Amino acid sequence: MDANILVVDDEPEIADLVEVYLKSEGFTVFTCGTAAEALTCVRDNRLDLAILDVMLPDMSGFTLCGEIRREHRFPVLMLTAKVGDMDKIMGLTIGADDYITKPFNPLELVSRVKAQLRRYTRYNGTDKAESDVIDFNGLVINRGTHECWLYDKELTLTPIEFDILWMLCENRGQVISAERLFETVWGEKYLDRNNTVMVHIRRLREKMGEPSRNPRFIKTVWGVGYKVD
């Protein structure tokens, strides 16, 4: 799989370890030790994915992710020693697609990188056969071009957000459980008390300008899941 990956970590040992494993899979890797270096790399290179450490000397990885999300949609994985739920929620809320804690299994990291890249390339026009369009009530979502418009305003969605919205729209009128959403979109086993889907749904509603109490599109069916009418 050919892709350019940015690795940002101020611990050289970890950055080198990640670089070795990614290069062994054929990826081109750019390593940076600071957020400033990373932003320069993002500006000067075409990137397909970024792995960001949360604890950087000049800027938090969360803030760096937010800066990247201003102009780029490629997947972002947060790499950190923090394991608290609030840290995970913060990372996902500001636009990260996945969250991996230290110490980590390098093979698992590579597997998650590949999964994110498959999802990203599939919904950014590399698979021309999947050019389906869903259009209703002012919402237009194009799976072939990875574009989403609401009332003639384009929504900037991450690959994960796009996958969730597409799945709900494709099953319009049906209630989709958080477990089914997670296992389909993330491709991993759903565990109890996993609030990842909830965080992404909330982020989607914010981007769509939806009120949390009475949303027009993504509705919560308490104790069951989510649906789009």
Concise summary:
The protein is an alpha/beta fold and 229 residues long. Helix content is 39%, strand content 20%.
Describe this protein with a few key phrases.
229 residues; four-stranded antiparallel sheet; alpha/beta; globular; five-stranded parallel sheet
The ordered string of helix (H) and strand (E) elements is: EHEHEHEHEHEEEEHHHEE
Low-confidence stretches: 126-131
**CA(first)-CA(last) distance:** 38 Å
Total number of strands: 11
Shape: globular
Give the amount of beta strand, in percent. Answer: 15-25%
Biggest sheet descriptor: 5 strands, parallel
Number of helical segments with 4 or more residues = 8
Order of strands in the sheet with most strands: 2-1-3-4-5
Query: Structural class, please?
Result: alpha/beta
Tell me, rounded to a whole number, the average pLDDT.
Answer: 86
Gyration radius, rounded: 18 Å
Provide the helix percentage. Answer: 25-40%
